[in-house]
Design brief:
The complex is a heterodimer of chains A (662) and B (67). Chain A is an alpha/beta fold and 662 residues long. Chain A is built from 18 helices and 15 strands. The radius of gyration of chain B is 13 Å and the shape is flat. By secondary structure, chain B is an all-alpha fold. Chain B contains three helices and no strands. Classes of the chains: A alpha/beta (662), B mainly alpha (67).
């Protein structure tokens, strides 16, 4: 899907402007060039205002001001002016869709207010050769939301200059939220919660339950209510941890940007050390997990080791003594006695003295068969016992290197922690008051973050335990309900809800895993292609807690030491990756994409960016400084339209016009 | 499918390609659509929609629905 045109009437500095965009697949880039303050950001704002009734990035200059063009309003005799923004999209199936938002503004004694109208938003759709519509209000908004869900708009229309701060301002929780939003995994979370609630409601409404079933139902409901409280508390803890992490980072940034070079160096060292420590901790946890798994697998053999060894010895002793394998089995002797005939043909019925004497001799063989009967089983068991003991030897072989690795990691961890402590002490002892205070604050929020993480772990365990209790009660309740046929329908409906919940969880887990890996891979690929310091970084990683890391080729963490331009490229790569996995083919508008990046790198970005957004309509709102001759040259193959904003300062505000130059 | 355009195509594809029963696939798609339509709603008030869909699809499997 791409934008055909955007027309703005009396929207901020645009009195009457129409922009026609470059159309994919031939030329998918549109350039709008203007000096700072000319109105680049308001082009992006006009798009989001038309679609969702809100502006995403309001410049300081326009904060608190009405969107209506003040020049037009002041010149109007009736003191009424109408703002209209219209966007026409071309959908993938070749059908056009036209969206118009119109709002009238009235000026009364210096106050400007909007006149509400239910027909403010209007959609027209092309069907065959005809246009269908107009469609107004909620129905119109629903059509727009289907094209671009409002929850993900910020990943399509964004401010490049702010990308520099993207990973500074956002914690793992925010990154996870971005991934969840873009892939709409949050819909699954809501759906699972609501399905669980409906299942609980079905049970609550059920009549004619036995007293035991009622008791179980009540207990489930009590546990469910507590679970809700636990989940809310977990959310609060996650928010608290995220807040502490941001504040910790803020003070760390202050130290890093302090005027004292020595403090800057120490802080940079600390950021690197902390990332290293986080990586080491992950490795330690992984090894401990492997160790625990091995111990779980081998625990029964470890407990039975003595008994197994003794049994093995006993069996081998019998074998050496020639007692096993057996010469004959008791069943064979029993058959001879039953038939009353020996294998040599003699009578052993015991009817006469001679026969009775022989029968006794044959019966005597039975005495030695007790062990022999077991002996074939013992032979099989001995094979298994030997195999178990061998597994135990292998287990020891596997365990030793793990233990060694763990020990060495613990030593490195201690060493790094010691260095961290020294850095912290050294910064805290600074003579500069501000630095001391920043360090105190940083340490305070670091402690708060770590303490909250422990609380989060405890709460998560509590939630898990409560879930197990609910499951156990539910199984018991189901058994109770099954006793009476009249509850069959209720049971089946509940089972259907359960199936729905399980399947939803299954799809969510699959998508979450795939999406996270795809975003990581694409961000990494794009970052390595766009970055100008080749061979410096390994790529970009997204940890289990969705924290972003950029490991240096040496293995050290590099995110904290990236320059502003590199951070912007990293965030740009992340945004492009988010877009590509979103499943929505929405045009992208980037405001000042290259502002923080110096000349040579911009050329590299301009060369590579089209490759990472193939077929996507991209609009770059750039300053003259960004749109250098090198960038122009690199983008020449993909740029279909180039505009320049002409801005004129007037008595009641500015006026801008967009002029097509190519 | 037209109504489902506000749901990520990746999700719909994963559901379609799964080995779930037709009724479960329909249930997930319809409930996701409700959630997508109401994604800005902090306190959802669409319990009736949920009950209607659950009972209809459970009914398709021969479930009796209400007690």
């Amino acid at each position: 899907m791409y934008i055909d045109y955007l027309s703005m009437k009396n929207f901020r500095q645009y009195q009457n402007t129409k922009i026609e965009f470059a159309r994919p697949p031939d030329k998918n880039f549109t350039i709008v060039q203007g000096v700072t303050g000319a109105g680049k950001t308001n082009i992006s704002n006009a798009v989001t205002w038309c679609l969702f009734g809100k502006e995403l990035h309001i410049d300081k200059k326009y904060k608190g001001l009405p969107i209506v063009n003040t020049t037009t309003l002041s010149e109007s005799k009736e003191h009424i002016s109408e703002v209209e923004v219209e966007i026409q999209f071309m959908q993938n199936d070749g059908r056009r869709i036209r969206i118009t938002r119109t709002v009238q503004f009235r000026e009364d004694g210096g106050n400007v207010s909007a006149i509400p109208s239910p027909r403010s938003l209007c959609v027209m759709r092309e069907v065959g050769r005809d246009w269908v519509g107009p469609i107004y209000g909620n129905d119109a908004q629903y059509i727009i939301d289907s094209l671009i869900p409002p929850s993900i708009e910020e990943y399509f229309f964004f401010d490049g200059e702010r990308l520099n701060d993207y990973f500074k301002e956002n914690t793992g929780k925010d990154i996870k939220s971005a991934v969840f939003k873009i892939s709409q995994l949050e819909l699954f979370e809501r759906m699972i919660d609501h399905l669980t609630a409906r299942k609980s409601e079905l049970l609550k409404m059920a009549r004619g339950l036995s007293s035991k079933a009622e008791e179980l139902r009540d207990m489930i409901q009590v546990q469910n209510r507590s679970l809700e409280v636990d989940k809310e508390q977990l959310e609060e803890l996650l928010a608290k941890s995220s807040e502490a992490e941001l504040l910790e980072r803020e003070y760390s940034e202050k130290l890093k940007n302090s005027s004292m070079e020595h403090i800057q160096n120490l802080e940079e060292q600390r950021v690197v050390l902390e990332k290293d420590l986080a990586r080491i901790q992950d490795e330690i946890e992984e090894i401990e997990g492997t160790k625990l798994k091995l111990l779980h697998q081998h625990m029964p053999i470890i407990f039975c080791h003595d008994a197994l060894s003794k049994t093995k010895k006993l069996i081998e002793g019998r074998r050496e003594a020639g007692l096993i394998p057996p010469l004959y089995q008791s069943i064979f002797i029993d058959n001879l006695l039953k038939k009353g005939k020996c294998i040599c043909g003699s009578d052993i019925t015991g009817k006469d003295e001679f026969s009775a004497s022989r029968r006794k001799k044959v019966e005597a063989f039975l005495e030695g068969t007790e062990l022999s009967d077991l002996s074939s089983e013992l032979i099989d068991s001995n094979i298994q016992i030997r195999e178990m003991i061998n597994r135990l030897l292998k287990f020891r072989e596997d365990l030793i290197p793990l233990g060694k690795k763990l020990k060495s990691l613990q030593e490195v961890k201690e060493e790094k922690n010691e260095t961290l402590k020294k850095i912290s002490q050294e910064i805290a002892q600074s003579n500069v008051e501000n630095i001391k205070m920043w360090e105190e604050q940083r340490a305070k929020y670091s402690k708060e973050k770590n303490d909250t993480k422990v609380e989060i772990g405890i709460k998560q365990k509590q939630i898990e335990r409560r879930g197990n209790i609910i499951r156990a009660y539910t199984s018991e309740l189901n058994r109770e309900l099954k006793k009476e046929a009249r509850h069959d329908s209720l049971l089946r409906l509940m089972a259907f809800c359960d199936d729905g919940i399980k399947c939803a969880q299954n799809v969510k887990d699959t998508i979450m895993k795939n999406v996270k890996e795809e975003i990581r891979r694409k961000t990494s690929e794009q970052f390595l292609a766009l970055i100008w310091k080749k061979g410096t970084y390994q790529g970009v990683n997204i940890d289990d807690d969705y924290s972003i890391s950029v490991p240096h080729v040496s293995g050290r963490e590099g995110l904290g030491t990236l320059s502003a331009g590199e951070r912007q490229v990293c965030a740009l790569s992340f945004m492009a990756a988010l877009n590509s996995v979103s499943g929505f083919e929405v045009p992208i508008i980037i405001d000042t994409p290259l502002a923080r990046i110096s000349t040579e790198p911009t050329r590299n970005i301009a060369r590579n960016l089209p490759n990472y957004l193939p077929g996507t309509q991209v609009t770059l709102l750039v300053t003259e400084k960004e749109y250098t001759s090198e960038v122009k040259e690199e983008l020449s193959e993909v740029v279909g339209k180039t505009y320049v904003i002409n801005f004129l300062e007037k008595e009641y505000g500015g006026l801008a016009e967009v002029e097509l130059v190519k | 499918m037209k109504k489902l355009s506000s749901v990520n195509r990746r999700i719909l594809k994963t559901i379609e390609e799964s080995e779930f029963t037709t009724e479960i696939k329909e249930l997930l798609k319809e409930l996701l659509m409700i959630e997508a339509q109401n994604s800005e709603d902090k306190k959802p008030r669409y319990a009736e929609d949920y009950d209607r869909i659950i009972k209809r699809l459970a009914g398709a499997l021969g479930y009796k629905g209400d007690e």
